[in-house]
Design goal:
41% helix; 115 residues; four-stranded antiparallel sheet; single chain; Alpha-Beta Plaits; globular; alpha+beta
């Protein structure tokens, strides 16, 4: 099942040169794990809550590949280039299949909650 790495970033201009080096090197760290950008540094249209930053979404073939990418020596090496200069929240999450049914999920959760 497809999985995603999501980054919520709050960059402060001007960007540090190390951030540009990170951007130049990240794709090479993703390639061995089948990773690709879905969105990169876009400012979201916020409809609920508050967020004053940018969003990055990466897609991987599955959660194991996403974890392997994040834990890879190549990616670990470049993390400080971003993290030392841009406050971020980074998360990995499984996607859902084409047959996902939110109503069925709600019914199952409701039943489980009742005991």
């Amino acid at each position: 099942m497809t999985a995603y790495a999501i980054g919520l970033l709050t960059p402060q201009p001007p960007l540090h040169d190390e951030v540009f080096v990170y951007m130049e090197r990240i794709q090479a760290t993703m390639d061995p794990f089948g990773g690709r950008f879905i969105t990169h540094g876009k400012t979201p249209e916020v409809h609920e809550g508050e967020f004053g930053g940018a969003v990055v979404i990466l897609e991987f073939p599955d959660i194991d590949k996403a974890r392997a990418w994040y834990d890879s020596p190549a990616y670990k090496e470049i993390i400080p280039l971003r993290a030392d200069h841009i406050p971020s929240v980074i998360m990995l999450v499984d996607g859902v299949g084409a047959d996902h049914d939110a109503a069925a999920l709600a019914a199952g959760l409701r039943a489980a909650q009742r005991g």
